[in-house]
Structure formats: structure tokens, C-alpha cells
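Friendly challenge for the regulars: who can give me the C-alpha cells for this chain first? No prize, just bragging rights.
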Amino acid sequence: MTQRLRTSGRRSGDAGPTDSTELLREALPNNKAPLGCYFHGVLPLKHMESQEEKPVIYTMENKPIVTCAGDQGLFTSLYTSLAQQLPREPMEWRRTYGRAPKMIHLEANFVQFKEELLPKEGNKALLTFPFLHIYWTDCCDTETYKSSVKEDMMRWQNTLRSHSSADWVIIVVESNETKKKNKPNILPRSSIVDKIRSDFCNKQNDRCVVLSDPLKDSSRSLESWNALLLKLRTLLLMSFTKNLGRFEDDMRTLREKRTQPGWSFCEYFMVQEELAFVFEMLQQFEDALVQYDELDALFTQYVLNFGAGDTANWLGSFCAPVRNWSGLLLRRPIDMEKRDSIQRGEASLLDLRSYLFSRQCTLLIFLQRPWEVTQRALELLHNCVQELRLLEVSVIDGALDCWVFLSCLEVLHRIEGCCDPAQLAANCSHTVGLWAYATDKLKCLGELCGLVSKNGPTSEDLNRTVDLLAGLGDERPETVNSLQSPYKKLKEALSSVEAFERHYLELSHAAMEMYQAIGRLRSARLVGKSLAEFYMRKGDPVRAEPFMKEALKSYESEGWRLPVTHTRRQIAECQKLLGRTEDYLRTSALLAGDVNLSTEERKHFCQEILSFAGRSGNPSHKVSLCMNVFAQLTRLQFRPATASVHSGAVLQVELTLRCLMPVPVCIQQLAASIHFDVDHGGTHGRSKGATRQTNQGTIEFKPGTSSAGPNSSTTAGPTLEMDEIQDRSPSDNSLSSVGVVCKNTHLIIRRRENGSPPETPNCVSPPTVAMKEGGQMLKVQNVKLEPGNNSITFTAPSGQPGTYTLRQLCATVGEVQFVLSPIYPSVRYEVYSQEPQLTVEPLSEPLLAGMPQLVKFTLLTGHYTVKKGDALQLSNTETMPILPSSSCTARISSPDAELVGESTLSIQSSEKVTSISLPPTLPYQVLEFQLEVLCIIPSGSERPANERLTNGEVRHRPRSYSHPDTPMTAIDQRMSIDCPWSIYSTLLALTFYIPFKTKHSLLSSGNRKYIQVCVQNVSDMNFTLTDMKLTEKQHSSLELQSLNTKTNQLLCSKHSVFCLWEVRWKDDLPSCLQCVFSANFCPLNQDASAFKPFHYQFQLERVTTLYSVRAEILPPPGEQHCRSGLVCGLEVCITRLTEPSEGEIAEDSKTDTDGLKNAKLMYEVADSSSNWAVCGKSSGMVLMPLKANATHKVQIEVMPLFAGHLPFPKIKVLKYLPHNAAAAIQPDPGKVPLRVKMIFFFFLLFSSFTCRIFVSISLISAAPLRLFTASFCVFSSCRPQTAV
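First reply, four minutes later:
Bragging rights claimed.
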């Protein structure tokens, strides 16, 4: 972006050079301060004729100086056009040290050339430095040039050379009028220009520029003007870059000498400010601001070093006592008085800071950043106060307050002058800090000058006021005619009490409104608290109390303990003056327990409460206060710790109260109200027996959580208290449904007072809570509470079953009641009347079937008394008999697991019932005993008819099932128990796990059959197996010969044992076999008496062999051996071994011409191991006659791919199923549909043997849709011997 230098004054179309004194005359009638300063400089061109040099006002209209020599009349005629056109086009300014280039508009102040204007040696002023020198001539006559113009040019150039000034240019103006006037003696233009260039511009021909017909409106004139303006801009920019670079180098050299003795900050300040002036003159306000910021940072660092003990000699001038505190002056861009004092080294710290900030403020306003001015001003005011303390500058009391107050208002007035009201309202967040700071300082001045007290100022206060006003000095000329100037406001505010109050209230309310508008409520309440202190000093507590309460809310919500204590003490003073007794007592109770106060102050407020409590008044009217301010409930303990007792039992409640008072307090009565909730579990089947034991016996109350009092300001309200409700069946106590209920609904959904949000509780004083008189109360009389922890014990009522909840706690001290309501977290105990409950559970997990296992019977007597002669009637079952025991001891214990006694049980068993006589047991005691049971492992036999239990219900046979958590098969066994306390039978279930998994298989080898039984131990125990036998129940002629060599077998956990029997028959092999596998087992390392039987029944079907498959591989014709890569012949021969059964004849088979039934078989040859390549047809369909010894041969071409011992290709034989066959006749997938008998031959290439393979296939004749596969998994040998 390009920037314009001229921001006020004349525009680019004005005629003639601008005199800055005209700007001063224009500014004064408008009551505005001129943007200017006084120091020595040069006059514009039209004032050069005056003989006496006068100081000029350098304002923001300052421009770089360009001297003009030669024909002054010629330049005057061209001045207007030159001044208008020079700044029109921007130029790119490329600076050194890698700084970013900028586009600037160049203007110039053209003055008459004088040798006095040239800079002297050591002069560091850049504003009076001529950056370019121009010589004007329109000479076209040779004689005139030689006689006068040349000599004048030589004198001009010699003067520049003597001052080392190389920035010059000669402009030759050519016009037709001059040619006509001197036509006889005129030479061609080029000859005069060439002469000047040869005489003065030998090496710099571009320093001579020709301007043709400047006053004419022609293309030639316009082109000539453009060339001249471009040359002037370029030369000016080159001069700027060169001279500024040299100046910056000198300035850095001077700054690097700051550690040397004799270095002065004031001298360096003037040098760097000169650079800032130049940047400001070039309209580079950001660069100018950087120079002042660097000076600010450098001075601040020196002050901080001084505070750390590193002193500088030049800082002594800034440690002088402050004599003037007139505040900032921002209505001039340059305060020359303070600048001169800085230049002379006589400025104070406040003078330097005021001048430096005024310059920064001016530049920020030109940069259109007024809100940064307010931010910097607030930092400046706070830093100046600290710097005065670091430098130990002597300042009278109140002087700094006056300086800060005037400076705040001066900044605010300056911002108001450059912004409209809408902008001020929208950006009040930037100015509110200054308003609040000014308010605070005005209050300090009022307190210092006695304008806040009730009696008014004293003579000493008046003398102090006169001294403060004297230090302000006279009012500045810029604000004399302003009725609202900071000087007049301060002088008026200190003149009388009424004026001070008016100004202070005006500032305070303005600051609070701004804070509230921007949402800074904390700051607004802080200003309000200061205003409340002002009202209290004036003796007006009515208007002070609301502001204090608002401030207290902020302190409480943010956890500021000391401000909370201080503000509460002030509120107590207000309430006492206003005569509000109850409010005063509540606040006094808070202060009496506040550890941030001294002991004497706490005792004072405690005595205030006790004095009121000891008065004899109306006993029906008592003042209720929150207990949390008097004592805190820290612990509650039940005895017994379960907090659950049966009706009529003794329950004690021990409370631990931490007394917050500084002295012992005698309490007439300490009472706790109880809310009773009737428990209907005994009549409606609703029981919470599973959750009774979850009540906490000891409850710890954290500080601030025992109630919703003022200390719990961080909580938004009570949390939900949930309880579980279960509905159980009255017959077997099984769970029917479960639910959740909220126990403190009356607290959760209650209406909030005055619509206040939950996060802003009443933090001034606790809310009034009345003690509710309930039907049942816990009371204790005449208790003395010592400071600290105190223990009080109550005896709780337990007559009626139900739930008792402690709601309120009340301590009565005379006419004062301290109430804790509600008690949070909720405290309750339970009085129950429980039905007897009988449970059966295993003594160890898991229960293994087939072995004696101990189960534990637990009887919770509840309200029932077990009398002599009461017995449990258990229904006997075949699958889980109860084993007799010679001695069975019952253990009787209390609910707390304390042993009451032991007794021997009497157990009598019959065919269907086992009776267990129970010993006498009192209510709410626990009776425990153990029985040994045995779960019979099901053998898979046929199930008998359903039996009936003793109660008439049908007994369902237990079924085994797979459990997802264990590999063992589970069996659920149910037993029915008749109890003397109920007319209903109790059904209980036990889950047993079978430790074994058994499977069987039928194996064939030629015409021989074998039966294999696998027993797998899936439990974690080790067993011993013995007497393993296999029998067939239907065919006596069938012989099963055992091939097992060991009688006893070790069966480890997660391992298996395999048993094998060969099947031998005399006539024909039966198609179906009914087998029973039996064995005895016991855990490892136990006696022989511990062996238990184990049976496994299974059925084998379709064991007859139907087909045999024989395969033979022949070498190619003419070859003796099979060779890799040559096609060989594979001959497959399928032979029917048995006559068809009735089921096969009934199947939908084709009939040939001879009337025989045929069966469709499909064959397929494949090699998945890539040893053989099947050439040609690899599969096909054949028709097999359904008669014995029927044979069919198939020829297939195969080619071996490798040499060596190769396994035969895989041959599959499948029975064809017609498309209309029903899928429902599929056989049981657990049965083996076919039996394959295979004889394997290894085939060796290059051998002289012909290889044959024989497969015996047992095909299911009763199932028409089955497939069977002969898979040959024969591994080749690496040795080239004869095949095995």
C-alpha cells in the first residue's frame, strides 16, 4: 500500500509553498491544538528574503528540504506544477539490512540555496538536512553562459563539494520564447547542454536534465515533465537511502557505547528521535513508532537494572524529587517544553515518560489504532508508579494519584476526540480500565484530603489539598476554553465534599456500567465494593449493603477466602447498624467459625450469638441458623456396622461433630428427625435381602457436603440417590423383576428460591431452615460441645420393619436453633422382618458328575423360630441320590458370623424322600450343614417314563448341554425341598459337569472290522481308568476281541485314552450294532473303593462293505517303466461285494434289458499335490448292476510330473442322486455313511513292478443320496529301492 505524507493542511492543488504558521492560525480559532513544535530550522522559499532568521513550526507538514540555485524567477514560475506533480506517483523504497520494501509518495520543501543550509561537521539533525540541490537555468546564449552562468555553476558546485554533498542535479529549461528572443546569437540546444555536461557532468551525464516547453500543453512537454519528475524522485530516494543508512550506523555506534562512562541517555534519545522524525516525515509511522518503542524498552531496562543494584550515572537526573504532576499532554504531537528539558538533561522521570508516551500516542492515532493507546496508557501508569519506587524518587502524598487521575482523563479525552460515540460504545472494553483506575485514584485523593469522612476535611487536609493543586501548575492553553478538561475536574472535585461525591459517583457508575456491558461482572462488583466502602465512610449502610453482597458472591464462587472474610465483616457491620438481628446473627455465626479471623474477633462474634440466645423471650419464636456455620457433621457410624437390624434389635448411631466455635458451647438438646418408609417385602414379595448388606456402617462427610449450605458453593445441587428394588416369586424366591427408584426426589425437583440458578447460592448468610417436627426423633439432652471433634451417641428406634432415613439435625442453644437440613449424603438404616431363606451351593467349583460331591445348605431363619421336630423333606431322584453319612454336623451362627453352637443332624432316607431333622434355632440366625450327593452320568440309554415329585409335580429328566465357559458338558439337577415354614415347596438347582467326552468310530481293513472308543478328560483333574469293556446287546454270535494291553490307564487332564476292539462274526455281519462301553474311574492316587462306574452306549449302523475299488498304473506301450513326462494308463476297477438290500431295490434306479437294477456311480480322478497330470477325461458316470461281484473298469490317462516314489492320484467314487430326490432322507450326520478299506502301494518310477491299489468301500444301501471318497495320502520315499 502507498501512503500519503500530507495528512492535514493544504492539498496537492494548493498554490505556492506551505508555511506552517498558516496551520497554526487555522488551528487556533477552532480551539484545537496545532500539530506542531518549535525548533530551529529553515524557512520556505518565499520567506528567504527576510534578513532575520526566525524559528519555524515544524508540523506534520514537514517535507524533505531541496535547495534551488540559479534562476529563481524561472523556478518560481514552475513551482506550482512541480509541487503538484512530484508526489503523485509512488516510488518503491528498498532499504538496507533486508527490510521489506515500501511504496512511498515523495514531497519536497523547495528553499533557496545558501551555504548556511549545508550540514556542518557533527550535525546529526536530519530534518534540516538538504537531501537534494538543484541548479535552474534557461540559458541558450553562448556568451551569457560563458560570462555568468558557468561561473555561477562553478561556485555552486565548489560549495557543494567543500561540504561533501554529491546529491545535485542541473535542470536546463528550453522554451520557444527564449529562442525567439535570442535568435541571432542562439546556438543549437544540444550545444549548450553538451557544454554543461562536458564542464560539470563528465562522469555523471544523467545529472543534467532538459525540460522542454514546461508551460505548454503538448506531448513533448508532458514527456519532458515525466522524465524530470522521475529523475527527481529517483535522486531523492537515493539520497534518503544513503543519508539514513549513514545516520543509522552512527546511531548504532552511539548505542553500543552505552556501557562507557559519560554516555548519556538523553543525548542518545535526541539522536534516535531524529530518526523517528524522518520516518514520520516520510509518512512511515510504523517505523517511527518502533524507534520510540526501542527507547522505551532501553530506558525500562536501565530502571530495572537500577532496582537490581546496577546503577548508571545518567539516571541521577531522573531521581530528582517530583515538583510537577500535571499529567500527560496528548493534545500536541510534540511537547517542546518537555523535549527541551530532555535535551538539557533536566527532565524528571514523569517528564520523560509523558513526552515518550505522547509521541507514541500521536503515531498510533495516525496508524488508526486508538484502542492500543488505552492499553499502553494503562501499562504506562502502573509502570511509572513502580519505577518511581525503584528509583526512590521523592514524591509527596497524593501527587502520583493526581498525575494518574489527570493522565487517565487526558487519554480518554484524546480517544473521544478521534472516535465517534458509536465506536466508543462498541469498544468500551478498551477504555473501562482507565475509567476504573481514575475512579480508584480519585477515591484515594478524597480519603487523603478528608473529603470522605463524616465530619469533612480538617485544616491539615485543606493544606494538603492546596499543596496538591499547586503541583498541577497553570492550566495548559489547549484546555483553557474546555469546560470538561481533566484539570478543571480534579480542581473542582477537591474543592468541596459535595463536588467530590458527585464526581466520584459519576466515575464509579460509569465504570460499573461499562464492566457490566462487556460481561466482566467480577470487576463491576469490585468497583461496587469500593463504592460500598465509600458509603460506609459516609455513614450510609443502606446503600452500601447491596454492593457488598454482590462482591461477596464473586468471592465465594471463585474461592477467595480472605476477601470473603473481610466482606462478611463489613456486611455484619451494616446489618448491625440497620438493626436486622436475624441476618446479623447468621453473619456472626459465619464469622465466629472463620479461621481467617483472629481468635479475639471470633470470640466477639460467638459471644454476640450466645448473648442473644440467653435472652428470655417468646419460646415459640426461635431463630433458625444453618448448622454448618456452627458445627460440621464429619462422621456417622452405625452399631452394628451393617446398618441393618431385625425388628426389636438394638441399633446405635454415633455422630462426630466438629465444633467451629472458639469457645465451648452448651447445647440444651441435640435432635435428629427420622423419615420412616414402610417396607412391604413380607406381604407383597418385594425383598431387598440381596442389597441389605450394602449399607455403609461408617459414613464420612467431606467438608461442605453434609448439607447444601454456604460452604458447598462448588456443588450445583444434591446428587441422585438411587436404590434397587427387586420383585421375587413367593414360591421359590426366584427373581421376577428389578427396578431403580430415586430416594431424594423431594430435593432434586424442588423449586428454587427467587429463580436463582444453582451455581449462585446464598453466600451472604445461610438460608433459613426450619426444623420439621417428625413422628420419630433421635434426642440427647444437655450436650457440651468443645472446639474440635465431639462424639454423641443415639439409640435408634427399630420397632417396625422399614427404612429409616435421617433427614435433619438440630442443635438448640436457648433461643437459637442450628439446623442441618438435609443431611447429605443420605443416611439410612434398615429394620427388616425377613422370610426364611434356604440356599444350596457347592462347596467347591465345579461340581463333577459321577463322583461324590459336597454341597452346602444355608438356612437364614429370618423371623421364623426353628422348633424341635422341624425337618426338611428332600425328594430323592435316581440321577442325583443323596449319599448316606454317619455324622453330619450343623453350625449355628449369628448374622455377624459369630458361632452360636453346633448340633448333629438326624438324616433318614426312604425310597423317595430324605428327611433332615433341624436343631432348634432362634430367629435371624444362620444354620449351615453339608451333604454329599452324587450325580449319575447319563449313559445315553432310553429314557423312562416321567416321574412325579413329592409335591405332585412332574419330574423332568435332566438333559446335558454345552456350557459356553467350559469345555465340559453341564447337567442341571433340580431338587424339591418341603420346608416347615411354608406350604410351598422350594425348588433348588445344582449344575454338574461331566468330566469326560466320549466318541466312537468304526474302522475297516479288508474284510476285518474294528471299533475304537476315545475317552477325553476335559476337566482339571487326573483320573485312573480300569476295567474297560465293550459289549454288544443284540447279537450273541458276534465276538468283540479286545486289543487293549493295559488294564489300568492314567487319564491326565486335557488328554485322551483310545481303546480298540476287533469285531468277529460267523455267518453274516449285522448291519446295525448296539454297543455299550463301560469302565471304572476315580481320581488319581485314591483307594480302590473310590472307583465309580462309567457307561457309554452307542449304535453302529450301515457297517457292511458294498464296493471295492482297485487301481493300477501301467507304463506306456513299449516301455518297461513309467517315466516322468510320458503318459501312463490308470485302470480303476469298481466291484460290487454284496447283494442289494430292500432299501436299495426300492430306490429310483434304472433297469437294463435283462431286468436288473442299476445304480449310478460317478468317479473322479484328481491330484491336489501336483504329482500327476490327468490327461483327457478325469471324471465320468458308470452304471453298476445291483448284484454281487458286478465289476466295472475305467481307463484314464495320467502323466507323472516328477521322478521318485509318488503317491497315487486321489480317486473319488460318488453315488448319483437324482434331482427329484427328497432332501429329508439325509442320514444322521453323526453316523458314518460309508466304510473304506484301502491297501496302499507305493509306486516307483523306473521300477519293473506294476503298481495296484485296492480300496474296499462300504456304501450305505438304505440312503440313496450319499457320496463316498477314497483319498490316497501316501508319501513318497527318498530311497530308490523297490516299493513297499
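The two ends are 102 Å apart (CA to CA). The longest helix spans residues 219-256. Your move, everyone else.
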